[in-house]
Specification:
There is one protein chain. By secondary structure, the chain is an alpha+beta fold. Helix content is 25%, strand content 46%. It is built from 3 helices and 7 strands. The chain has helices at residues 16-23, 26-30, 122-145; strands spanning 2-12, 36-41, 46-51, 63-73, 77-86, 89-101, 109-119. The chain has a 7-stranded antiparallel beta sheet with strand order 1-7-6-5-4-3-2, with helices on one face.
């Protein structure tokens, strides 16, 4: 497997508890997932989704994704694991989302994120490298707009 690491910082103009609530409310998160077709909870910490990304080389076929919240430490840390099945191959994404109050304002929260994306081959690795920044940017722009 090939690995790609992505990390970043996103600042929200909202208190830490409000950002935590947003990150742990699947109905709000799903509204920001590009190409989301279906979503269903499997448990209170595990979810099954299908997305269609028009720019993906598989055309308009749904891509199944299973997401699990593996560790929650409210309102500070959320660890997740996601598994995408793309062209009969699995891509695993492990994420950590850490919240902290901004040093400049108590009404601002900084979200630090780290993602480790493991892909099964160089083609899918290159695809992830090209698509991940756009998907991540759009996702956080949408989340910020909800607060």
């Amino acid at each position: 497997m090939m690995a790609m690491n992505v990390s970043g910082l996103v600042s929200f103009t909202a208190p830490q508890t409000a950002v935590w609530q947003l990150l742990t409310t699947p109905e709000q998160l799903c509204g920001c997932l590009p190409g989301l077709q279906t979503w269903q909870p499997l448990s209170d910490r595990r979810f099954e989704l299908e997305v269609v990304w028009q720019f993906a080389p598989n055309g308009h076929k749904p891509i199944p994704i299973t997401i699990e919240w593996t560790r929650l430490q409210p309102p500070i840390t959320l660890d997740t694991t996601a598994v995408l099945t793309f062209n009969q191959q699995q891509i695993e994404i492990n994420g950590r989302f850490s919240l902290s109050p901004s040093a400049t304002s108590p009404q601002q929260t900084d979200l630090h994120f780290e993602l480790a994306i493991d892909s099964p081959n160089s083609f899918i690795d290159q695809l992830a490298r090209n698509l991940a920044p756009r998907l991540i940017d759009n996702y956080f722009v949408c989340l910020k707009a909800q607060l």
